């Protein structure tokens, strides 16, 4: 591969050497390029310098705002699948989608996943056995599935793709937006089987049953014996 700029060549070499010379002073996460550590640093400062001109969405990176405008507002996707017409924000998302149209030779014995790469299928099957091959480069947390890692990364970048059409509040997870939307509609689909308590969040019902009815707390303090719902 040839480069016209010495700086570009220097940055490219880090791909092969694994060198990550730019380190975050706050958490120690390291990066190959200075721009990456600058964007990462904004996650500690809560700095969201870029905002959507159509709603209250804000992000620490200009690219995330562009993706947001396309995905939420304009729906004018620059990358289209020629087979089914579905649109995508980035070329990598389109490439991942195109794989679904290809007939693969190797299939997972436990789910519909398939691939022409046998080793990839074998690695995938390990996930069913408890493997967590997808690791966050910032905090080290591991995940079974790549889409869970992608969603987790938004906690570090501050990216909030899911925006409430009612009030403009944004969220990193779609499930959080769904639960939030119920505060506007008043929808409370989850109910306690022991009393008339109703809520828009299934987790709140579980907490309610423990706190009000059973008193069977899953976590207990070894010093004072006080029961807790969560282990923090």
From TrEMBL:
<feature type="domain" description="C2H2-type">
    <location>
        <begin position="1"/>
        <end position="21"/>
    </location>
</feature>
<dbReference type="GO" id="GO:0003700">
    <property type="term" value="F:DNA-binding transcription factor activity"/>
</dbReference>
<dbReference type="GO" id="GO:0006357">
    <property type="term" value="P:regulation of transcription by RNA polymerase II"/>
</dbReference>
<feature type="domain" description="C2H2-type">
    <location>
        <begin position="190"/>
        <end position="218"/>
    </location>
</feature>
<protein>
    <submittedName>
        <fullName>Zinc finger, C2H2 type, putative</fullName>
    </submittedName>
</protein>
<dbReference type="Pfam" id="PF00096">
    <property type="entry name" value="zf-C2H2"/>
</dbReference>
<feature type="domain" description="C2H2-type">
    <location>
        <begin position="134"/>
        <end position="161"/>
    </location>
</feature>
<feature type="domain" description="C2H2-type">
    <location>
        <begin position="106"/>
        <end position="133"/>
    </location>
</feature>
<keyword id="KW-0863">Zinc-finger</keyword>
<dbReference type="GO" id="GO:0000978">
    <property type="term" value="F:RNA polymerase II cis-regulatory region sequence-specific DNA binding"/>
</dbReference>
<keyword id="KW-0862">Zinc</keyword>
<dbReference type="InterPro" id="IPR013087">
    <property type="entry name" value="Znf_C2H2_type"/>
</dbReference>
<feature type="domain" description="C2H2-type">
    <location>
        <begin position="162"/>
        <end position="189"/>
    </location>
</feature>
<feature type="domain" description="C2H2-type">
    <location>
        <begin position="22"/>
        <end position="49"/>
    </location>
</feature>
<feature type="domain" description="C2H2-type">
    <location>
        <begin position="50"/>
        <end position="78"/>
    </location>
</feature>
<dbReference type="InterPro" id="IPR036236">
    <property type="entry name" value="Znf_C2H2_sf"/>
</dbReference>
<keyword id="KW-0479">Metal-binding</keyword>
<keyword id="KW-0677">Repeat</keyword>
<feature type="domain" description="C2H2-type">
    <location>
        <begin position="79"/>
        <end position="106"/>
    </location>
</feature>
<dbReference type="GO" id="GO:0008270">
    <property type="term" value="F:zinc ion binding"/>
</dbReference>
């Amino acid at each position: 591969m040839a480069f016209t700029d010495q700086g570009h060549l220097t940055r490219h070499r880090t791909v092969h050497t694994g060198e990550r010379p730019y380190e975050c002073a706050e958490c120690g996460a390291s990066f190959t390029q200075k721009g990456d550590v600058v964007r990462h640093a904004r996650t500690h400062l809560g700095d969201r310098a870029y905002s959507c001109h159509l709603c209250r969405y804000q992000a620490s990176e200009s690219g995330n705002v562009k993706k947001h405008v396309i995905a939420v507002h304009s729906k004018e996707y620059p990358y289209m699948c020629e087979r089914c017409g579905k649109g995508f924000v980035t070329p990598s998302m389109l490439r991942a989608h195109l794989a679904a149209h290809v007939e693969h030779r190797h299939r997972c014995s436990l789910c519909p996943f398939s691939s022409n790469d046998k080793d990839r299928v074998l690695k995938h099957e390990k996930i069913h056995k408890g493997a967590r091959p997808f690791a966050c480069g910032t905090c080290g947390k591991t995940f079974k599935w790549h889409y869970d890692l992608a969603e987790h990364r938004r906690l570090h970048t501050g990216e909030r793709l899911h925006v409430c059409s009612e009030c403009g509040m944004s969220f990193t997870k779609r499930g959080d937006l769904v639960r939030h939307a119920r505060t506007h509609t008043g929808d409370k689909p989850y109910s306690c089987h022991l009393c008339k308590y109703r809520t828009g969040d299934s987790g709140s019902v579980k907490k309610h049953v423990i706190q009000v009815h059973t008193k069977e707390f899953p976590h207990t303090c070894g010093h004072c014996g006080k029961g807790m719902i969560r282990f923090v």
